[in-house]
Amino acid sequence: MSIDREPFEGFFEEDFNMYLPPKRKDRSYNDDRLLIKHRLHSLGELIAPGLKDAGLDLDFKTSLSHPYTFNKFSVDSQWVYFARQEKGTRALKKLFGEFLGKDLDMHYCHVILVAEINLTGVELTLKIHQQAWWDGQNVKNKCNEASARKELTDALNQQNGFILSIHNWKREYICGKLTQGDIVNYMKYYTPGDHWFHLRMTLPRETVIPMEAGFAEFASEKLARLAPIYKFIEWRKDNDCVFGGGQT
């Protein structure tokens, strides 16, 4: 069944206020959060073409808009996120077998690109899910080579306004100022399977609200610029630093 959604016109003050502590677990706000979910979907439709032009053929979905077991019955934020298509998981499933291959069915359990709204603002991020050890281990192993560390360092330093961090740790690596030594240090402590990998730009609500519909173009451009880093990280048959299949 098709859903009628309004064109994306930006985010509003009341959208951010949906994540105030008294409202996060309150089911009476489900309809309001559903409107934000539709708004995020419309935003995703505007972001997707820019990602495709950048060489990323990804599917997108939106997160839960109501309290449920998966969000610990608290909607602290909502997102639209882009991840590899089902066809992109087939090669991994063959390697993992039937039992472990089920982990790949969770659409968000991969390297993903995200636009997330929360109480204080909007974050644009490239994340590796903490359970997506295949993507995390791929980039970690790849960075054992000096040439790859230089490639990643150079790509990250082109992302002004983004910050690299591990999980919920306080240490931050500022893009534009990174050295190869920073990448060595990051990979020393980053543990795929245990930690989230975060590359994020944080925009306060006071910046986002006046942008209105123009936020879509801004978000599309910023996320599309992350395409080289996404491709560097993503496990593929031609970018395999985990199972010994080779890389380009």
The helix-strand sequence is HHHEEHEEHHEEHEHHHEE
Strand-residue proportion: 15-25%
Main sheet makeup: 7 strands, antiparallel
Strand order of the largest sheet: 1-2-3-4-7-5-6
* Percentage of residues in helical conformation: 40-55%
CATH class: Alpha Beta
What distance separates the N and C termini?
A: 42 Å
Total strands: 9
Rg of Cα set: 18 Å
User: Which architecture name does CATH use?
Assistant: 2-Layer Sandwich
The third-level CATH topology is: BirA Bifunctional Protein, domain 2
Strand and helix layout:
Elements: H1 13-17, H2 21-24, H3 30-53, E1 58-62, E2 77-84, H4 90-101, E3 111-118, E4 121-128, H5 133-142, H6 146-156, E5 163-166, E6 173-174, H7 180-189, E7 197-204, H8 205-211, H9 215-224, H10 227-233, E8 239-240, E9 246-247
Antiparallel strand pairs: 1-2, 2-3, 3-4, 4-7, 5-6, 5-7, 8-9
Description:
The protein is of the alpha+beta class. The strands form two sheets. A seven-stranded antiparallel sheet has the order 1-2-3-4-7-5-6. It has a two-stranded antiparallel ribbon with strand order 8-9. The mean pLDDT is 91. It is built from ten helices and nine strands. Helix 3 crosses helix 9. It is globular. The protein has a single domain, classed as BirA Bifunctional Protein, domain 2.
Brief sketch in words of this structure:
The chain is α+β, with helices and mostly antiparallel strands. The protein has ten helices and nine strands.
What characteristics describe this protein?
about 250 residues; alpha+beta; BirA Bifunctional Protein, domain 2; two-stranded antiparallel ribbon; about 40% helix; globular
